[in-house]
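Reviewers of the previous submission asked for a worked example of the structure-prediction workflow described in the proposal, so we include one complete record here. The input consisted solely of the amino acid sequence. No template or homolog information was supplied to the procedure at any stage.
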Amino acid sequence: MVIVAAVDRSDRATDVCEQAEILAQAFDDRVHVVHVLTRSDFFDLGRTSAEAEESISMDDVRGVAADVAAEAAANVDVEWEAVGLVGDPADRVVDYADEHDARYVVVAGRKRSPAGKMIFGSVAQTVLLTADCPVVSSIE
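From that input alone, the workflow returned the following structure tokens.
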């Protein structure tokens, strides 16, 4: 089984990887560090490459996302794999966890008011509510 560490570009990504590492050591599992670029990020990258007169493929975009994941996992001391995905972050993380029979998903949580969650949504909250496996939230 694997531990899925869902990371973003924030400083909290390191905390998520540390929590995933602790779980992986306890269960002798691998860590899959996952970063998801949204479709808007994809289009921004495409626009930038068009301005530079270069083409960008979906594999290139996934590679950019995997690089973000790898950077977050740099200090992880267990076997890990960096994974880059494109789409809705919460949906893609949950789908990935299901596809890889994850033992746990680790996400970064934030202290937010109930109104703030309702108005702005939350990737962590959606993962917590929809994942089929246990979810660990690393609160800042």
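The radius of gyration is 15 Å. We consider this example representative of the routine output the project will generate in years two and three.
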